[in-house]
């Protein structure tokens, strides 16, 4: 049996066109983009052309794009540096309990510096109420940080509505768009977004490269000190081949292709769930499959089947999915997202798997996956009796 990969929310395989682009740039464009000679100018042109592509993808300007190492650095830079420059206006920050660890750990760090953070809850569908944000807003709120799409459930947060709510407030609006970039329409002007984080490896680009969109009206000090790269906002010699690869991945996307992907992932989801129902597997979807859901993520509660055992057996059959738990320092910790949705005593927390689709998955692969889930869950339930 061929190995099957259904963990695309963690990372995606690079597209052949991206690999070709990076290989070309590694071979032919090896100058330092900060150098003033011919080789440097060649690298600088690739950098500038790539930045233009990235900026246009979210309706930003070139100067508003800061190249980073990815989502984690972008989130750290957005939260830490904005809090620093806004602290004279207040010390209150709003976020949610379901954010990515790179946001939650950074907020903990800021709390240690004296900032006050309100962590908003989510409902059983894993979504956030705009009214909760409105109620939490205070005159001293300086920053609101909300992910666009949750990486464990696929829930889409109401970013546009919250942007409208904040447009006349002093609070800066940041969104971690790592899971939505490349799959949903993003317009920072339309949605009144001040800062936005992305990562290339989620859209079939290279790892360890991303960007932070920073509204031109906001000035922050660099998180990484050194040279004057990125208009003095992020020091370090730019990784030109990776940036070119990122831009290539973005250039292969358009609004139609994004919708086509969502439609395709919805079709795969329907196929998988239908197969499980036909074979009498007891399951429920964690969250809700609706217009407020990104169909590249499917989180399933397989009733009575322990996450780690199901994941391990799938792995033994060469099928990669993600558990409902995160591995940290060799110990399994319950998913903070599912815990926030259903409570720490819910069976869902320890009996759920995340299946995340990518553009290279096929219907025949989903058929093989569903057949194995049926077979393995039946075997494990029999052993538990």
From TrEMBL:
<comment type="similarity">
    <text>Belongs to the class-V pyridoxal-phosphate-dependent aminotransferase family. NifS/IscS subfamily.</text>
</comment>
<dbReference type="GO" id="GO:0051536">
    <property type="term" value="F:iron-sulfur cluster binding"/>
</dbReference>
<keyword id="KW-0808">Transferase</keyword>
<dbReference type="GO" id="GO:0031071">
    <property type="term" value="F:cysteine desulfurase activity"/>
</dbReference>
<dbReference type="InterPro" id="IPR015424">
    <property type="entry name" value="PyrdxlP-dep_Trfase"/>
</dbReference>
<dbReference type="Pfam" id="PF00266">
    <property type="entry name" value="Aminotran_5"/>
</dbReference>
<dbReference type="InterPro" id="IPR015421">
    <property type="entry name" value="PyrdxlP-dep_Trfase_major"/>
</dbReference>
<feature type="domain" description="Aminotransferase class V">
    <location>
        <begin position="5"/>
        <end position="369"/>
    </location>
</feature>
<keyword id="KW-0663">Pyridoxal phosphate</keyword>
<keyword id="KW-0408">Iron</keyword>
<keyword id="KW-0479">Metal-binding</keyword>
<dbReference type="InterPro" id="IPR015422">
    <property type="entry name" value="PyrdxlP-dep_Trfase_small"/>
</dbReference>
<dbReference type="InterPro" id="IPR016454">
    <property type="entry name" value="Cysteine_dSase"/>
</dbReference>
<dbReference type="InterPro" id="IPR000192">
    <property type="entry name" value="Aminotrans_V_dom"/>
</dbReference>
<keyword id="KW-0411">Iron-sulfur</keyword>
<dbReference type="GO" id="GO:0046872">
    <property type="term" value="F:metal ion binding"/>
</dbReference>
<protein>
    <submittedName>
        <fullName>Cysteine desulfurase</fullName>
    </submittedName>
</protein>
């Amino acid at each position: 049996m061929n190995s099957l990969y259904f963990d695309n929310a963690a990372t995606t395989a690079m597209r052949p066109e991206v690999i070709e682009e990076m290989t070309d740039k590694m071979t032919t464009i090896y100058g330092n983009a900060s150098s003033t000679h011919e080789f440097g100018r060649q690298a600088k042109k690739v950098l500038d052309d790539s930045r233009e592509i990235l900026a246009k993808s979210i309706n930003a300007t070139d100067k508003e794009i800061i190249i980073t190492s990815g989502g984690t650095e972008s989130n750290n830079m957005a939260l830490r540096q904005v809090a620093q420059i806004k602290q004279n206006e207040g010390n209150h920050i709003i976020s949610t309990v379901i954010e990515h660890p790179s946001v939650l750990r950074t907020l903990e760090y800021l709390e240690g510096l004296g900032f006050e953070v309100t962590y908003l809850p989510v409902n059983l569908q894993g979504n956030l109420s705009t009214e909760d944000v409105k109620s939490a807003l205070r005159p001293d709120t300086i920053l609101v940080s909300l992910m666009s799409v949750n990486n464990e459930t696929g829930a889409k947060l109401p970013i546009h509505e919250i942007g409208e709510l904040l447009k006349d407030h002093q609070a800066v609006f940041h969104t971690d768009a790592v899971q939505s970039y490349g799959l949903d329409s993003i317009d920072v002007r339309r949605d009144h977004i001040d800062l936005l984080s992305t990562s290339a490896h989620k859209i079939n680009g290279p790892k360890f490269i991303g960007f932070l969109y920073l509204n031109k009206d906001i000035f922050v000090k660099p998180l990484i000190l050194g040279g004057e790269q990125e208009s003095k906002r992020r020091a370090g010699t730019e990784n030109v081949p990776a940036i070119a690869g990122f831009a290539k991945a973005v250039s292969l996307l358009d609004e139609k292709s994004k919708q086509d992907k969502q439609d395709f992932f919805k079709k795969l989801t329907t196929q998988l769930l239908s197969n499980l129902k036909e074979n009498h597997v007891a399951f429920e979807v964690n969250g809700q499959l609706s217009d407020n859901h990104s169909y590249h993520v499917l989180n399933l509660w397989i009733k009575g089947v322990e996450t780690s055992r199901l994941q391990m057996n799938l792995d033994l059959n060469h099928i990669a999915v993600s558990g409902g738990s995160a591995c940290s320092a060799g110990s399994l910790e319950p998913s903070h997202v599912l815990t926030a949705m259903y409570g720490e005593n819910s069976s869902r927390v320890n009996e759920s798997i995340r299946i995340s689709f990518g553009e290279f998955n096929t219907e025949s692969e989903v058929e093989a996956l569903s057949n194995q889930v049926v077979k393995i869950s039946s075997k494990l339930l029999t052993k538990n009796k």
